[in-house]
Amino acid sequence: MLHFDRPGFLFFIPIVLGILVLARRGALTTWTVRQAATCLALRGAIACLLCLALAGPRLIGETRDPAVIFLQDVSASMGEDAERAGAWREIIGKDPLRSAEVVFAGTPQIARAFGAKTTVGGEIPADATDLQSALEFSAAALPPDRPGRIVLWSDGNWNTGRDPLGTAAELAERGVEIDVVPGPPDPRPEAGVATLELPSSVREGEVFDLTATVHASPPSQGASVRLYQNNLLLAETRRDLIAGDNAVVFPNVRAAGRMALYEVEVTADQDTRPENNRKRIAVAHGGAARVLIVDANPAQSEPLSATLNAAGFSADVRSPQGFPSTMEQLEAFDLVMFCDAPAMDFAEAQLKLLEDWVKNFGGGFLMAGGEDSFGAGGYFRTPIATMLPVRIEREEREETPVVALLVILDRSGSMSAPAGGQTKMALANEGAALALEVLQGKDLFGVFAVDTRVQDVVPLGRVTDREAAARSIAGITSGGGGIYIYTSLAEALPRLRQAEAKIKHIILFSDAADAEEKSAGQIGEGPGGSGTALDLAAAMLAGRITLSVVALGSDQDRDTAFLRQLAAQGGGRFYLTADATTLPRLFTLETMRATESSLREDAFLALPKGRPETLRGLDWSTAPLLLGFNVSRLKSGADLLLTTEKGDPLLATWRYGLGRTAAFTSDAKARWASEWLAWPGFGKFWTQVARDLVPPAGRDNLTTTLREENNTLVIEAEAVTPSGEFRNGLAVTASLAAPGQDAGPFALPQTAPGLYRATIPLPKANPALIAVSDGISRPLTTAWTPDYPAEFQTPRDGRPVLEKFAALTGGKVNPAPSEIFRPAERPARTRQDLAPWCLLLAALLWPLDVWARRRQWQMSGGKSLPPFSHAR
Known about the structure:
Layout (H helix, E strand, L loop, with lengths): L1 E3 L7 H14 L7 H23 L1 E7 L3 E7 L8 H12 L5 E6 L3 E5 L18 H11 L6 E7 L9 H11 L2 E6 L7 E8 L9 E11 L2 E10 L2 E10 L2 E11 L4 E9 L10 E7 L5 E5 L7 H9 L3 E5 L8 H4 L4 E5 L8 H14 L2 E5 L14 H5 L2 E2 L11 E8 L7 E2 L2 E2 H15 L5 E7 L3 E8 L4 H9 L8 E2 H14 L4 E9 L3 E2 L16 H10 L2 E8 L7 H10 L1 E7 L5 H12 L4 E2 L6 E2 L20 E2 L2 E2 L4 E5 L5 E8 L2 E6 L16 H13 L8 E8 L2 E8 L13 E5 L5 E5 L2 E3 L2 E7 L6 E6 L6 E5 L14 H11 L18 E6 L1 H20 L18
Parallel strand pairs: 3-4, 3-6, 6-7, 15-16, 15-17, 17-18, 18-36, 20-23, 20-26, 25-27, 26-28, 28-29
Antiparallel strand pairs: 1-2, 2-45, 4-5, 8-9, 9-12, 10-11, 10-13, 13-14, 19-33, 21-22, 23-24, 30-32, 31-34, 34-35, 35-36, 37-38, 38-42, 39-40, 39-43, 41-42, 43-44
Helix pairs in contact: 1-2, 2-18, 4-5, 5-17, 10-11, 10-15, 12-13, 13-14
């Protein structure tokens, strides 16, 4: 099929021919008719050929005759099979016009071009394999007017560059076929260090496990694996290596200094590649992590603090009274652990401060179990409950007993006094409403508001509309004289006697300085009868109705002793607080305890879930029993690490804002973990849990990552505020400190929101220290150490990759030599340019035209006229 690239020039042909005819008519030369016709024909043909050449004529066709490139992998992993590769090159080289040769390893190189008969010398480094670049290079070398075929000789073990499957898919769209000749596996014995694993954040003096993955092929007996720290031999072990990956663990490595170089070396018999026998990693250590352990009885947490101190942490044990009250004080620590400290011992502002520190400043937090932890500690609906990875509400279980809870609130005039931005009455109302939220739907609940008489705000019974009940409770106002104790208990007793519940309990809230009517008839306005409030409490206890008292005041108040005695007589608990803001927590705390639903004191075994790094290296088959735990439920999105035998959460973690929090629902002291204290894994367990929660060293507003890319070192710094906003427009600089190669400071230009990036030549030193500064705070120091070449890393099975190449492009696996130049599946369009031929023909006609014009032609009368004679 004929095609013109610029068909517009064809319109000049009749115009040019017309001009030639007109020119001939006006010519002064005298030609014979034959001479004139001949010259006009020749000149017209030349003009037409020139117009055709300008129009770009092309002859379009199809061909299935392929152009073949033999692409040979010469990287180190190909082993020694040059004889077989040479045979393939000889087969393809027999047709040099249709074939070319390319060799590659980390980079590709032309070995023989199309049409050449000899190969071009030159060696390329064999320490990497970049299949993607080799395929792109070969495809670019294929001629555009013939089907392309690449015969790939390789083991498929690519280790640098992009994924070659994407390039293969692009070649398939272009119709390029890839035949693959899988190279044989390297038969040489091999042993090398594949990876080194250690915690992502290691601080100075901290103890950790370092795991080396040693790859062997074939198995090796008695291999020696050595660990060096700062070029000093730290440990050595002998292992029989199986074929494949072998995990070699060096336990209890202690981080030394602010910067450390760790190196693992393997020595095995018959190893033929020394390049991968050593692997190094440089780590910048932070200072010792500071841990604050808060316990109502600090002496009971001494075993835990001693364990953490022995592992390189700096642990400080305090009572709740010593808990920080400012952010500056709290920022001195990296991790806070609550170990059986009740919520009522903290101010509300302190708990909010702790939540803000974890969420916005990246601190770590853990709550361990106990009778004063989680729900039993009064943390229901507190900032602590918000950031824990478990829920501490009372569980909806059929086997839990039905509870009848009656709350008696003092609404005397003293309750109108302000406290924490609210009135004491409002805080007591909030506590009563929270107590209702703790209960299950099957439980009974009621509220009395009492001064000189009883106001039945929420009748005792099942509450179907909790929102309406909460509104009624919130509507209680203060007024009148002090609470009439005897009157309120006398009213409550028959209500609870008639209630159908297994647990019957009263929470009596009173002003410790204004609890009136302790006996019947003490005040004329009270009900008739005889006896005292203490007698009523004893009668209630005899009828399995318990009574607890929440008193607002101090030990010096006149009615404190009476209220404490009343709680003891009623078989309940007594709470005294001078801070009205703690009232909501006290009500939920007492409700949790009264309902007997937040603690389980049964022996059980801890069961791990999955294989998280936090629990690595612990033998759970030897772990002894735990004797109790706090009941909770896992929140959505939290990571469950340990469970009880019944599936209850034992250890759970999650990220909260910029920090991490954890819940260990059993304890770490002699009550429930008495047998764990003697377990060899006790120290390792708590060390690894604490390390998981401690924020990485240098947790400022700047983080730095280093990576090797195309023989350069890429330095990236990410700058964000504590709230997660990008810090833009900073003058970020970096300095390189390495023997013989000090550089800097040099700028890291901003490349994206909050991201700064620079590329430098690979440092020659090993390791090299790089300090990155945002121009505001102290520079952040990191370390880089080069790895051995990618070609000597653990090989992967590359045959599936090669087979995918063939499947994607319609090629063959292990084609026969006779199939190399087989017709292509998809024909290619050939485009033969005819313009040169037109010009050549025009050039050949030009001298003929000159000859025709100068030759003497015989006239029809037998005379011949001289050339170019003019008519007169």
